[in-house]
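sorry to bug you again but im stuck and you know this stuff better than me. what follows is a protein written twice so to speak, once as letters and once as structure tokens for the fold. mainly i need to know what kind of three dimensional shape the backbone takes. anything you notice is useful, everything is just below:
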Amino acid sequence: MLAGDSPVDWDQLTTTTIADAPKFFDRDGTIASVMKKEVLSKHRKALMLFGTFHLMHGPADDAVAVASYEKDYPNATFVIADLTFFRADLKGLPRNPFDAWPVPSLVLAKGTWLGALDISHFFPAPIWLDKHCNVINEFPKEDLQTPMANLVDALLYLGPPELALKEQMPADIVLDADYVKELRRREALIGEPEATTMTQKEQDESIVKGAENPMIDLLQRPDKKVIAAIAQSCLDHKKGSTTPKFK
């Protein structure tokens, strides 16, 4: 088993060193480095368990782990994306075009109607920042010009999307006050919106509410307070202000 996340010494990361944080949090760079050093160069095989956006075949730059190492190791990685967030609002399609599919089902993307669609049909729009710290909640235009078959090799159907479940936070973690305190400190250091938009009590209530309803909300929109916090974090970083302000 290999760890692909960035090796961060949180005891050394403080409000005075957070300006150097980007070099510590290059997740895709770390993933690519581990794969090249420990797997690909040694002709080994690995099952990579990461968010799909770290695993896509494009764009061919350092922003995506797999795409970045495929410059040296092409055609070595078979990428699978799931259909949990698939939008079935295409003209001529039934509400769930996969009703007749066995559960689970795996289909190749290349040469299929699914593979010809762009990424916006498979995932919620991402939240990203432009150079002026404006928060944008949509896919870049270039992404919408790329068929899904160019990004992944296969698509996995695990059943009706409305039955998809969220991963719950274990009770022993929620009840560990020291752990939760440290978690919030880290969230504040790296500018996680929840650390600045929610009190500890509100966060606890959110966890309980999530446990009561474990279903994924496929139509959930980004919270306006979170959007504002993301923009403010960007502006603070540009001004050189690195002191976390969490509730």
DSSP finds eight helices and five strands in the chain. Residues 165-247 form one domain. The first helix runs from residue 21 to 24.
